[in-house]
From TrEMBL:
Transmembrane segments: 20-42, 288-309, 336-362, 382-405, 426-451, 675-700, 727-747, 759-779
Domain MacB-like periplasmic core residues, every copy: 30-236, 476-617
GO cellular component: plasma membrane
Pfam families for the chain: FtsX (PF02687), MacB_PCD (PF12704)
Keyword Membrane assigned: yes
Organism for this UniProt entry: Chitinophaga ginsengisegetis
InterPro entries reported in the protein's UniProt record: ABC3_permease_C, MacB_PCD, Macrolide_Exporter_MacB
Name of this chain's protein: MacB-like core domain-containing protein
Membrane topology: Multi-pass membrane protein
Occurrences of domain ABC3 transporter permease C-terminal (ranges): 294-412, 679-787
Top-level taxonomic group: Bacteria
Keywords assigned: Cell membrane, Membrane, Transmembrane, Transmembrane helix
Keyword Transmembrane helix carried by entry: yes
């Protein structure tokens, strides 16, 4: 019987080519978009799910609550790890993770490998299978390394690398290491990536900070014994915290406004690493991002399903003769329902096949534009296939089942008397059209506001010269390389000044960004500030405005114990002119004196408000800043890049202008903009396809009315307006409903920025006008055709 229904469905679809084409194209486009978006969400949610001990692994996060502001930090001090292992029950394994791009040499060639410096428990805690060598003995010695299969292939070609000696460039020196094991390549859904592992004790600053409780530089991970709860672990851990951070806690409590729990640690579960901004070791991706993918996929599928429902119901009225005849001959409601659902199922199957082809074709472009890494191999997962099939049947059931049910319940007497018609006020049809355009208007409005915020970010004054300053990452540079580079830069005519810094501004091509927060007591109150190590001429190179005092200068030998602060730091210290005041940043450091104050500037992203800042000297620098004055900045950048790579043969990351660095901080917002824009375009196109098809059917139903009006003298423009106004009313209703919804969503989104644009009323006006114009043009295409038709044909043909 089912075979018979499918044959009849196929014949009906061949007779209704326009109806079938609109539904297949609309549904296949929507299914393709929904598949891509859903796979993106699935990939984000399944990060790090392959670790066998995942449910027992946590990253430690520090919380500092002084009443007015809550700060979180993911970097921990080195002696904390030792204390936790000794004094907290239930800790099975513990490891720091310090990531670097390290030059590795074998023979005459050297390569850059992504290295993680870890403790000896790392391979026992995390599931990165060892395919050659012994997991238990790997990383037990300080001179051992573990390579991935890919890295081993790069270094040794096709030979087995276990037992071979390679050299790593650490602190500017080549040092020998023995390859103790080869690990499988890292899965693409791992938030943790490496090509080489070595012991954490090889980290360049390890020996100087291993006993320093105030130096927190790297994330710390713990594995609990099975059965140990997160709550009990945190309770015991914070007993240790209160013991070893007693002085810091007492200082914080002095100006905490009555808050008692001013500093504590919590455990961030492994499953939350990838989608938690507190885990700076990972991407810090907004946890709403995968939900946004699912919401957009649902909206796009919903719009296509609405088209399907509307067109199916509309076509069923045109087939009232067939329905009445079959009912009069004894067809049951269930048989009619199955027949019409079979037609819907057949259409959806065609759409699914076409959508899979589209997805395969568009996947490389999708990954490139939106910065995703979806591969077709994801369909090897039985859950992905099961979810896709289940989702398809659900869509088919909803999109095809409701119209089939509606048709099957038609009254036989009304059908035979010819009283069925589309009417001007079909409640279901009109409601669904309103929903379609409401979604389209929301997406258009959101796209516009996101675009405005991106423009605001690009044009917002940052307080420093970003367009003329080049940042050079000093990866693997020796002191002599840095000195030579500075001397060569001084000889270049377009170079106006040269300085340096421990931290970059924005995010450079090395992918690095960070901050350094310190706290100390000043006049019986706790002061918290960002700290930045800089070189001479820092303010001059960046065009920072000096409000009082001066910048660091080689003419003053005492500047080694001097600091320059910003306005907010002066305000926190409680002084108007801070020049000359002294303070001590820790008990084991000599006091420093303030020599200058600069105007506040955005040294972090516009997501955050400007923090107090203290600039110091005599600390390691990781970047050179070069201010250039040239009519050809691209040529100057290329020239400086060539010069630097000629001096430092181990240089990996290219220099970049600071304005480029600043824009890299907002890649997630740029991704949101592209996604919303694509979603809005798809929503509008699919909605218009459905509106056009509905208009065709409505005009066909009202052809006699149009003919009579023309005979009675109605103008073409009058008829077009008459036929279009019913649809335009629906679009206007959609605009009125969509406007407050879009405002709410964007208001909440903008709250994530300390500095953001204002939501203007005209954005929603333009979005609504655009939707109305698009709908009018869509309907008018058919309205004009109907209005120009010969009334004789309309009145004489049945």
């Amino acid at each position: 019987m089912l075979k018979s229904y499918l044959k009849i469905a196929w014949r009906n679809l061949r007779k209704q080519k326009v109806f079938a084409a609109v539904n297949i194209v609309g549904m296949s486009t929507a299914l393709c978009a929904a598949l891509l978006l859903s796979l993106t969400a699935y990939r984000e949610w399944t990060y790090d799910n392959f670790h066998e001990n995942g449910k027992d692994i946590y990253q430690l996060i520090g919380i500092e609550d002084t009443g007015g502001q809550v700060k979180t930090g993911s970097s921990m001090s080195k002696p904390l790890a030792v204390a936790l292992q000794k004094e907290v029950p239930g800790v099975k394994g513990i490891t720091f993770i310090a990531g670097y791009n390290v030059p590795v040499r074998y023979g005459a060639n050297h390569y850059y490998l992504g290295a993680q410096m870890v403790d000896k428990d790392f391979l026992k805690m995390f599931t990165f299978p060892v395919i050659k060598g012994d997991k238990n003995s790997a990383l037990q010695q300080l001179n051992q390394v573990v390579l991935t299969k890919r890295a081993s292939g790069i270094l040794f070609k096709d030979t087995d690398g276990v037992g071979k000696t390679v050299e790593l460039n650490l602190n500017g020196k080549w040092q020998p290491f023995i390859v103790s094991a080869i690990a499988a390549d890292i899965p693409d859904n791992s938030g943790m990536y490496f090509e080489l592992l070595t012991r954490f004790e090889n980290e360049p600053e390890y020996n100087t900070t291993k006993n320093d409780w105030s130096a927190s530089n790297f994330p710390l991970f713990v594995q609990l014994e099975p059965g140990v709860s997160k709550t009990s672990f945190e309770k015991n851990m914070n007993v240790v915290v209160n013991k070893y951070y007693k002085g810091k806690i007492e200082d914080l409590q002095k100006n905490a406004g009555g808050v008692k729990n001013v500093f504590y640690l919590k455990g961030l579960p492994l499953k939350d690493f990838h989608l938690d901004a507190d885990s700076s070791f990972y991407s810090g991706l907004n946890k709403f991002y995968p939900w946004l993918m699912i919401i957009l996929a649902t909206l796009i599928i919903g719009i296509a399903a609405i088209n399907f429902i509307n067109l199916s119901i509309a076509r069923s009225f045109a087939r009232s003769g067939e329905i009445g005849l079959r009912k009069s001959l004894g067809a049951q409601n269930g048989q009619l329902l199955l027949q019409f659902w079979a037609e819907a199922f057949l259409l959806c199957c065609f759409a699914l096949v076409l959508s899979l082809g589209l997805m395969i074709l568009l996947l490389p472009y999708y990954n490139q534009v939106f910065g995703h890494h979806i591969a077709l191999s994801v369909f090897r997962n039985i859950w992905v296939v099961t979810g896709t099939v289940a989702g398809f049947f659900l869509i088919t059931l909803l999109a095809g089942g409701y119209p089939a049910w509606k048709v099957a319940r038609l009254n036989i007497l009304q059908v035979l008397k010819g009283k069925l018609g589309m009417g001007k006020s079909s409640g279901v049809r009109n409601g669904l059209i309103v929903v379609q355009f409401m979604v389209a208007v929301v997406l258009i409005s959101c796209t516009s506001i996101i675009w405005q915020q991106l423009n605001f970010i690009q044009s917002a004054p940052l307080g420093y010269n970003s367009s003329q300053v080049i940042s050079i990452p000093l990866d693997n540079a020796t002191p002599s390389d840095i000195t030579t580079m500075k001397n060569r830069l001084a000889e270049m005519g377009e170079v106006r000044s040269v300085s340096g810094s421990m931290l970059n501004l924005g995010m450079g091509k090395d992918g690095s960004s960070g901050n350094w927060t310190r706290g100390f007591m000043y006049k019986d109150r706790h002061v918290s500030t960002q700290c930045l190590a800089v070189d001479y001429d820092y303010a001059r190179t960046l065009d920072l405005k000096i409000l009082s005092g001066r910048d660091f200068s080689r003419e003053y030998g005492t500047d080694s114990s001097a600091v320059v602060i910003n306005e907010l730091m002066a305000k926190q210290l409680g002084v108007t002119d801070p020049v000359g005041i002294t303070f001590r940043m820790s008990d084991d450091e000599p006091p420093v004196h303030v020599i200058g104050m600069v105007k506040d500037y955005h040294f972090e992203s516009l997501h955050k408000k400007i923090d107090p800042l203290v600039m110091i000297m005599n600390a390691p620098l990781n970047y050179i800043f070069v201010k250039v004055e040239t009519h050809n900045p691209v040529a100057s950048l290329k020239k400086i890049t060539t010069l630097w790579k000629g001096i430092n043969e181990l240089a990996e990351s290219d220099p970049s202008f600071l304005d480029e660095n600043a824009q890299r901080l907002y890649r997630q917002e740029q991704r949101f903009s592209k996604i919303f824009m694509s979603g809005a375009v798809l929503a509008v196109i699919i909605s218009c396809m459905g509106l056009f098809a509905i208009a065709v059917l409505v005009m066909a139903h009202r052809k006699k009315e149009i003919g009579i009006r023309k005979v009675l003298g109605a103008s073409v423009s009058g008829i077009v307006l008459l036929l279009s106004k019913d649809f335009l009313r629906l679009v206007l209703v959609a605009v009125l409903i969509a406007t407050p919804a879009a405002w709410y969503f964007m208001h909440r989104w903008l709250e994530g920025f300390e500095y953001h644009t204002t939501i203007h009323w005209w954005v929603f006006g333009v979005a609504g006008l655009l939707a109305v114009c698009i709908a009018f043009l869509t309907v008018s295409l058919q309205s004009v055709k109907a209005a120009l038709a010969n009334p004789v044909n309309s009145l004489t043909r049945d």
